[in-house]
């Protein structure tokens, strides 16, 4: 989290030095359009079904660890 705070503070420091109104206006529009609150994603029925199936898999311990997956992938790659 410290890296995010440092980045945010660096951006703020740079913004404080800008006096060009048009430039600041353009930055403001960019920030407003990319706001997390405005990016609501509508999921399709298929996506919702897949998420529900994933939840069910997790509840019923039907999953493998990342390490197991990596080993399986490595074995598959070696067989090519």
Question: What's the helix and strand layout?
Answer:
Layout: H1 2-16, H2 21-33, H3 45-59, H4 66-79
What does this structure look like?
The chain has 80 residues and is mostly helical. The chain folds into two domains: 2-37; 45-79, no CATH class. Helix content is 71%, strand content 0%. The protein has helices spanning 2-16, 21-33, 45-59, 66-79. The two termini are 41 Å apart. The mean pLDDT is 90.
| Low-pLDDT residue spans | none
Strand content: under 5%
The end-to-end distance, rounded to whole angstroms, is 41 Å
User: How many helices?
Assistant: 4
Compose a concise summary of this entry.
The protein has 80 residues and is mostly helical.
Features:
71% helix, 0% strand, 4 helices, elongated, mainly alpha, 2 domains, 80 residues
């Amino acid at each position: 989290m410290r890296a995010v705070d440092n980045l945010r503070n660096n951006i703020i420091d740079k913004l404080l030095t800008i006096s060009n109104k048009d430039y600041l206006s353009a930055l403001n529009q960019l920030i407003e359009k990319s706001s997390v609150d405005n990016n609501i994603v509508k999921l399709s029925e298929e996506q919702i079904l897949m998420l529900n199936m994933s939840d069910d898999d997790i509840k019923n311990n039907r999953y493998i660890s990342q390490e197991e997956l990596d080993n399986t992938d490595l074995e598959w790659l070696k067989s090519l």
